[in-house]
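Sequence in, structure out.
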Amino acid sequence: MAVGAKLPVTRRDEHYGHYDRALDEPDNEAIDAYRYGWCDVLATIVSIVGYLFDICTDMVLAKMYYDHKEWWYFGLTTAFIVLSSVVMLVFSLRWYILDDKQNIRDGSYGAIRTTIPVWKWILRGVCLFLHLGPVLRYFVSMQYGCKFRHSKGAERERKRFYKFMLFEDVDSAVLRLLECFLESAPQLILQLYIMATHGTETDAILLSVQVAAVVSSLISLSWSQVSYHKALRYSRDDKHNMKYPGMAVMFLWQICMIAPRVLAIALFASQFKVFTFVFVGVHWILMTYWLHVQKTHFCSGKACEELLFNLVLAMIYIFCYINLKEGHTRYRYLIYYSLLYFENGALIVTWYLTTNAMDAWYRLPSLVGVLGSSVVGICVMLVYYKCLHPAKTIKWCIPITRENCLGSDIDYSITNSDTSAQETEQNFELQRLQNSASQA
């Protein structure tokens, strides 16, 4: 179902507008038609089911630790759930408030957006309190997508539905990404640590739930990365959409990079508990500084919000790399993955040589898996960029410049290249009103 060239997503541009420009490689040109098919619905349903299963397994584990009187494990499992819930609540509520401030006449599409009813705010509050913020946005995204598919109205009305679908899709993808690396990643390390520490002493039922939680967390972490990139590419009119073979290969690439990272940290923690926190803290501070050097602009003009967002994103960098700046990424990947491989190697070799479980069956497989899986992940990444990247024209050799190493500072226009003069004027007027509203 084609309707024409995509629209740029400009909502909250004054506050969080640069996260939707953070893509890997610049495309020479990109004119993908408006599309929302059953595969997109299926991808959203997979995200919802994965999210709910991941949260449910963690809650079941917390209850089982409580029943077994494992107070430390119960407290940590519960704390990770609550922490991610609070962070998602703060950012999601902030975005809802900004959306309400920008609830004005959209001159580009002739749509009057009325005041949000009270029952919607109540529904949002309940969902956020119950840790279901991303699920609500997923459902709203599918609702607008179905309206776009089945609407018999004017083309501008269908474009409006598609635009709102993109808004919710990007927001839900970012929230899911934050939730995964604030909850799923720590839970994954914690459960692996518990399994490595207790070995076969754990009863069969608890062990099976732990395995289910570990698998679901790893899948959630990898899928959140894929969903994030898919949503951002759909939201950009100058970027080609990701194809499903490319999504599958990216998913494999992320698993191969995330799995050895969490395994290395978990096994190191089983032998050196306090030093693990030191290592993670130093890496977090280093990544926060790197984000600062890249001059991110998630919250333009608001230094405190920018620092908070960078601190949260630096937690994601403990486990994997996400691109936050426009431009070529190879040197940023080279810097990050070199550091990651060195850290993983140091952690797993130190554990291998000093572990108390010298006769454990997983000792040698863990060493080989951590060191080998990262290499496989790099190879899969190269396959993705060579054969399945949406741009199709990736240059392997580019100059080593500050822009190529830290990202571009170019600010792209919010208007579409094929809009009419009247629509261009209306877009600029809308952006002016949005900026005024955001400063009110």
